[in-house]
Amino acid sequence: MQAIYEPRGRAREYAELAFSAYSGCSHGCGYCFNPEALHKDPADYLNSLPREGILEKLERDLAQMQERHDLREVLMSFSTDPYQPIEKELRLTRKSINLFMIYGRRFTILTKGGLRSTRDFDLMRIYRGNCRYGTTLVFTDWCQEKIWEPCAAHTEERIQALVHAHQLGIPTWVSLEPVFDPYQSLALLEATLGFVDEYRLGMLNHMESPGRIDYREYLGIAVRLLEEHKKKYLIKRDLRLAAGVE
């Protein structure tokens, strides 16, 4: 396939297939590993651009998946954000969602775009049996958020988008990764239990932790909360290893 691909390494724990309409990301998150993984200068990576001929390539891939009865879910996206500011003008994510609907293929969103992403909830509401909406939550501390996620939507805005999706019956999920401060991550987990269906638990990779983190304690508390509230969850392998539970 030309547009849809099979992730490798840690990313494959999140999704069997992925798709990106853009190259680069203007959110400028300080912990982002994509510039290194894609062998790009961080400054160049901030200059987000549409991928050439991406909708035509995506349509061919979706037609192929339909012919093969490939029911695997496609994540949008690992290497960029489907709802960064450029989407407001180009609407490639919206056009991609339309193609997924036409070909009856499953997809899930992962974004820090906040309320910018809600304009596509009209489509996702119709298609809610075959799509999910997710966001990344890292900080409750506004000062840390502005340092590490300078151009992404505010945490509160991302939470508002989750609430809105839940109210429309769109399945929701949260990626609690990276973990800079386990107390902030746990606070975000507790604050969203009423309107989030599934959680993905990870840790801080690709850089030094700003302080000592007891991942065993963190994971124990998180799992207890999730099981008490009967939530689905996935623990990434790195976190299981760091917590000594594998």
What features would you highlight for this structure?
alpha/beta; TIM Barrel; two-stranded antiparallel sheet
Explain how this protein is built.
With 246 residues, the chain is of the alpha/beta class. The protein has a single domain, classed as Aldolase class I (TIM Barrel, Alpha-Beta Barrel). The chain is 39% helix and 13% strand. The strands form 2 sheets. It has a 7-stranded parallel β-sheet. It is globular. The two termini are 35 Å apart. The relative contact order is 0.12.
The CATH superfamily appears as Aldolase class I
Distance between the termini: 35 Å
Strand order of the largest sheet: 1-4-5-6-7-8-9
- Helices and strands, in order, run as EEHHEHEHHEHEHHEHEHEH
Looking at the overall shape, the CATH architecture is Alpha-Beta Barrel
The whole-number mean of residue pLDDT values reads 94
Brief overview:
Helices cover 39% and strands 13% of the residues.
Secondary-structure map:
Elements: E1 17-18, E2 22-23, H1 34-37, H2 42-45, E3 49-50, H3 54-67, E4 74-76, H4 86-90, H5 92-102, E5 107-111, H6 121-126, E6 131-136, H7 142-148, H8 155-167, E7 172-176, H9 182-192, E8 198-201, H10 215-228, E9 232-235, H11 237-243
Parallel strand pairs: 1-4, 4-5, 5-6, 6-7, 7-8, 8-9
Antiparallel strand pairs: 2-3
